């Protein structure tokens, strides 16, 4: 069951991004320790704004997959899609904020991790957003958020240079 095209969009997109990263290779100086700071994300407000815009559009993507609102069943599917999309994004971001707070001993939290968590939660709920119970969508989003954030760290350890972390979020 793939209600909103999760396989066609996210699996294919993430796999294509990985293939592109491997074919193109890393940016010049990416893995040199003397240039490490040059490649860290700097424009955090723009990253968060992009995440917010994606999240807003995700509602149309998931709920719009009903293609009509002409029956009670369509309305139920669309409303469940909106609810599960909201919960998955919230809990994906929340779990990553909690993990970053623990990681930094409650002194600061990582806003990039928040973005990974939200997007990971949204990607993870896309396939079953019409049928998954809203309570379960919280767990799905939290797991998706952890996977997205963790896979970004694994990708870095494997020296795969993905500028926008499409592989980590979508695959």
Short description:
The chain is mainly alpha-helical and 171 residues long.
Give a structural overview:
With 171 residues, the chain is mostly helical. It has helices spanning 6-24, 44-63, 72-103, 111-125, 134-157, 166-170. α2 (44-63) runs parallel beside α4 (111-125), α3 (72-103) packs antiparallel against α4 and α3 crosses α5 (134-157).
Secondary structure elements and pairings:
Elements: H1 6-24, H2 44-63, H3 72-103, H4 111-125, H5 134-157, H6 166-170
Helix pairs in contact: 2-3, 2-4, 3-4, 3-5, 4-5
What would the keywords be for this entry?
mainly alpha; Ammonium transporter fold; transmembrane; 67% helix; 171 residues; Ammonium/urea_transptr; ammonium channel activity; transport
Total discrete domains: 1
Largest sheet: none
Please name the CATH architecture. Orthogonal Bundle
CATH class: Mainly Alpha
CATH topology: Ammonium transporter fold
Question: Which descriptor suits the 3D outline?
Answer: globular
Poorly predicted runs are none
How many DSSP-defined strands? Answer: 0
Element order: H for helix, E for strand: HHHHHH
What is the percentage of strand-forming residues? under 5%
Helix content: 55-70%
Distance between the first and last residues' Cα = 18 Å
Assign the structural class, choosing from mainly alpha, mainly beta, alpha/beta, alpha+beta, or little secondary structure.
Answer: mainly alpha
Look at the structure and name the CATH superfamily: Ammonium transporter AmtB like domains
Q: How many distinct helices?
A: 6
Q: What is the quaternary state of this protein?
A: single chain
Q: What is the radius of gyration? A: 17 Å
Domain Ammonium transporter AmtB-like: 1-171
Membrane topology: Multi-pass membrane protein
Subcellular location: Membrane
Family: Belongs to the ammonia transporter channel (TC 1.A.11.2) family.
